[in-house]
């Protein structure tokens, strides 16, 4: 097991018992990375003790600072030397140490036993949080009839009252909401309701569903519904994993109305065809009986669906493809074609993440005999807002053009004029708040770093003398922080610190090795620009030749570079 727990500034050293020392986390780079053995830990511990031992400093102030740092290093070694604490962190990280109940765990347990105990404690914590979770979900759909923009005749336009302005109407609306109510760790009740209206007529219904997880392989649920449109409904659904690659679902229902009882049933079987591909076979019996088979392939960069349905009254063949861009905004473009007894529909569109919790999508639908429609969807957390806009009953080039270009132009304008300034302002506010909250902590770490640099001076002189004698590795200049471009008016040194001495102190046998973690945790380092992107720039000499290196904050670094040797 390793000692990744001291990695960067997020190490085990943040435990409450030793929280006063951020300097502890800086020792990771002298502990040979996450696979360090006990012998390597002891070797690095001895090296740090020699560097910070109070008896090696005569100046009273340096001696006081050395005593403090020496104590921190000793505490860090005690943590790393404890097999249980080290095993807990290596398996679960910092969160594992925050789980209540470790104090009652028997000592000398194996990693497997520790993992089992952690999962038990985690379950207990989840149970305590169970009653606080309702997972609300909602959908609001507003249907808009804009056919008057394209389908009106010229004579109608001239005779129309109100100066011939086109009429845009809201012809339908739908609102639904659901909440979950956990009853036990295996039972959940879901209460949902909806209201719908179309051309002045509407209604609603309420639904109660109770689900029980019977085992790791299956669950079942009962459904009760009532409304003024379809009447009472009683249903049951079960899910079962048949094998590791195959599962089935079955659903039965009884719909009560003034015309009698209408039974229905649905069965579906799904199977993993390979790592990214699923095959589905569904049979539905009732008022709209059908047999459907589909293949769905989902990868990191694409999503493909091919489906065939044979049924009454609709049979169709559908194919869709979606490409996923690997960008920060998670942009996706998609297209589909669907043809059957009802006609043919072609759709294309795109979706993009516009903020941390919001996704905006637009889809153009062109069909015979449906005409041209534009569908706009906004997902905000667990809420969905839909705006289907019917543009024309015919396939008109003008309607297709405006449905395609219009949303794109509006999005670009809103993105540039509203969204980007808003997101930028939010980030600046968060950064300023982060700086304010961490100001005292950064000041303390800066003081510790400056004390460490003073304590390193004599050791660095000896290291430089030894390296010069064999033409080894000498750090001439090193800067850490945020660097600005040459054409920027901001002073570069305002957000960088000189780390020449701390890096030279880490040189051993003409080698410098930094593992994959934030360099702000190194001895003699601190974060000069909280929340901003940082890098390390250094100039070093090896075998009489000068070399310059630029490394990202969390990138591993090994000097000298292979091509500099």
Automatic annotation (TrEMBL):
<dbReference type="InterPro" id="IPR055225">
    <property type="entry name" value="DNAJC11-like_beta-barrel"/>
</dbReference>
<dbReference type="Pfam" id="PF22774">
    <property type="entry name" value="DNAJC11_beta-barrel"/>
</dbReference>
<dbReference type="InterPro" id="IPR024586">
    <property type="entry name" value="DnaJ-like_C11_C"/>
</dbReference>
<dbReference type="GO" id="GO:0005739">
    <property type="term" value="C:mitochondrion"/>
</dbReference>
<keyword id="KW-0472">Membrane</keyword>
<dbReference type="InterPro" id="IPR052243">
    <property type="entry name" value="Mito_inner_membrane_organizer"/>
</dbReference>
<feature type="domain" description="J">
    <location>
        <begin position="8"/>
        <end position="93"/>
    </location>
</feature>
<dbReference type="InterPro" id="IPR001623">
    <property type="entry name" value="DnaJ_domain"/>
</dbReference>
<dbReference type="InterPro" id="IPR018253">
    <property type="entry name" value="DnaJ_domain_CS"/>
</dbReference>
<dbReference type="Pfam" id="PF00226">
    <property type="entry name" value="DnaJ"/>
</dbReference>
<protein>
    <submittedName>
        <fullName>DnaJ (Hsp40) homolog, subfamily C, member 11b</fullName>
    </submittedName>
</protein>
<keyword id="KW-0143">Chaperone</keyword>
<dbReference type="GO" id="GO:0016020">
    <property type="term" value="C:membrane"/>
</dbReference>
<dbReference type="GO" id="GO:0042407">
    <property type="term" value="P:cristae formation"/>
</dbReference>
<dbReference type="Pfam" id="PF11875">
    <property type="entry name" value="DnaJ-like_C11_C"/>
</dbReference>
<dbReference type="InterPro" id="IPR036869">
    <property type="entry name" value="J_dom_sf"/>
</dbReference>
């Amino acid at each position: 097991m390793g000692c990744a727990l001291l990695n960067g500034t997020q190490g085990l050293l943040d435990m409450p018992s030793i929280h006063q020392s951020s300097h502890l986390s800086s020792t990771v780079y002298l502990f040979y990375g996450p696979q360090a053995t006990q012998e390597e830990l002891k070797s690095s511990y001895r090296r740090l003790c020699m560097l910070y031992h109070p008896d090696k400093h005569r100046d009273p102030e340096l001696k006081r600072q050395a005593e403090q740092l020496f104590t921190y290093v000793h505490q860090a070694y005690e943590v790393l030397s404890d097999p249980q604490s080290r095993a807990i962190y290596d398996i679960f990280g910092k969160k594992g140490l925050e789980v209540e109940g470790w104090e009652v765990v028997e000592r000398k347990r194996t990693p497997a036993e520790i993992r089992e105990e952690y999962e038990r404690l985690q379950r207990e914590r989840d149970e305590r949080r169970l009653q606080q979770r309702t997972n609300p979900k909602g959908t609001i759909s507003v249907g808009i009839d804009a056919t008057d923009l394209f389908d009106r005749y010229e004579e109608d336009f001239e005779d129309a009252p109100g100066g011939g302005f086109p009429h845009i109407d809201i012809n339908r609306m739908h609102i639904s909401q659901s909440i979950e109510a956990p009853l036990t760790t295996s039972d959940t009740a879901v209460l949902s309701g909806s209201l719908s209206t179309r051309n002045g007529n509407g209604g609603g219904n309420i639904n109660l569903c109770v689900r029980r997880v019977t085992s790791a392989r299956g669950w079942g649920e009962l459904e009760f519904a009532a409304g003024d449109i379809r009447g009472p409904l009683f249903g049951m659904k079960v899910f079962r994993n048949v094998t590791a690659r195959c599962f089935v679902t079955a659903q039965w229902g009884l719909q009560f109305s003034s015309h009698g009882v209408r039974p229905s049933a649905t069965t579906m079987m799904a199977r993993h065809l390979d790592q990214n591909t699923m095959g589905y076979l569904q049979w539905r019996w009732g008022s709209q009986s059908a047999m459907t088979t589909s293949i769905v392939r989902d990868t990191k960069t694409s999503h493909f669906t091919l489906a065939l349905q044979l049924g009454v009254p609709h049979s169709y063949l559908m194919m869709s493809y979606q490409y996923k861009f690997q960008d920060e905004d998670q942009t996706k473009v998609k297209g589909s074609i669907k043809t059957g007894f009802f006609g043919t529909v072609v759709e294309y569109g795109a979706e993009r993440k516009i903020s941390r919790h919001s996704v905006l999508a637009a889809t153009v639908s062109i069909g015979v005999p449906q005409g041209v429609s534009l569908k706009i969807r906004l997902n905000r957390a667990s809420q969905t807002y839909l705006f289907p806009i019917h543009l024309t009953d015919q396939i008109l080039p003008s309607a297709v053009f405006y449905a395609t270009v219009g949303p794109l132009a509006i999005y670009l304008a809103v993105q540039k004029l509203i969204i980007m300034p808003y997101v930028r302002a939010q980030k600046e506010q968060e950064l300023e708040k982060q700086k304010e909250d961490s100001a005292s902590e950064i000041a303390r770490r800066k003081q510790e770093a400056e004390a460490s640099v003073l304590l390193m001076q004599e050791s660095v002189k000896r290291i430089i003398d030894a390296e010069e004698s064999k033409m080894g590795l000498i750090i001439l200049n090193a800067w850490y922080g945020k660097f600005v471009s040459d054409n920027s008016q901001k002073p570069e040194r305002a957000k960088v610190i000189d780390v020449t001495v701390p890096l030279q102190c880490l040189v051993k046998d003409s080698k410098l090795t930094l593992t994959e973690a934030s360099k702000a945790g190194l001895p003699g380092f601190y974060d000069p620009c909280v929340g901003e992107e940082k890098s390390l720039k250094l100039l070093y000499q090896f075998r009489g030749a000068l070399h310059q290196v630029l490394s990202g904050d969390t990138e591993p670094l090994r000097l000298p570079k292979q091509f500099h040797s």
